[in-house]
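Exercise 7. Given the encoded structure of a 198-residue chain, write a plausible sequence.
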């Protein structure tokens, strides 16, 4: 027999899934509590029992997105520079696959406590990877440079302003160039890593 708590959790999960689908299909404007409830197949009032308002629901989606990226990054293995490159590409790949979700991650106010915790999980993991490459004293400086650059690459790709035909390079190659540029004592580019999955 399903308990009340289990039923509530299942409803909340269904609402979050529905909101996630609506976000991917139409962006934040498509995510209304009414539309989410209809998509999830619950009563009209159910979403209001789980989320204060639309902003609260969108923050939940952003937190889930940050946590999903962090979970993926934590699974990366390999040499330090290779792991760092793949971590950056993992974040950029969210922008490629789910541009509305990616934009929401960075649109959610950094001072929202729950969102800040979720973003900090990724930032701390990322800074540890940077430290493995450049050392602890320089990790924050290079980490900020790499994160800002990755965000810029994702944004340029999304807007169509990073056309390979124009620049002769793509986002993956730019990430490799960035990481190669901070690896101490290197005299040339590293061999290409096969894929994000490799």
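Solution.
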């Amino acid at each position: 027999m399903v308990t009340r708590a289990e039923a509530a959790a299942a409803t909340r999960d269904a609402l979050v899934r529905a909101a996630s689908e609506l976000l991917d299909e139409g962006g934040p404007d498509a995510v209304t509590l009414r539309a989410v409830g209809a998509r999830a197949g619950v009563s009209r009032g159910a979403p209001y029992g789980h989320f204060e308002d639309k902003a609260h629901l969108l923050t939940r989606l952003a937190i889930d997105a940050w946590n999903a990226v962090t979970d993926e990054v934590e699974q990366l293995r390999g040499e330090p520079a290779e792991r760092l490159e793949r971590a950056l590409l993992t974040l950029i790949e969210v922008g490629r696959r789910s541009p509305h979700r990616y934009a929401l991650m960075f649109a959610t106010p950094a001072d929202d406590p729950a969102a800040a915790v979720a973003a900090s999980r990724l930032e701390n993991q990322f800074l540890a990877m940077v430290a493995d490459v450049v050392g602890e004293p320089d990790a924050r400086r290079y980490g900020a440079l790499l994160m800002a650059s990755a965000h810029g690459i994702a944004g340029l790709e999304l807007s169509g302003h990073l056309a390979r035909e124009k620049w002769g390079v793509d986002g993956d190659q730019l990430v490799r160039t960035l990481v190669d540029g901070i690896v101490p004592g290197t005299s040339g580019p590293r061999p290409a890593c096969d894929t994000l999955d490799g």
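Remark. Residues 4-26 form the longest helix (23 residues). Students should compare their own answers with the one above.
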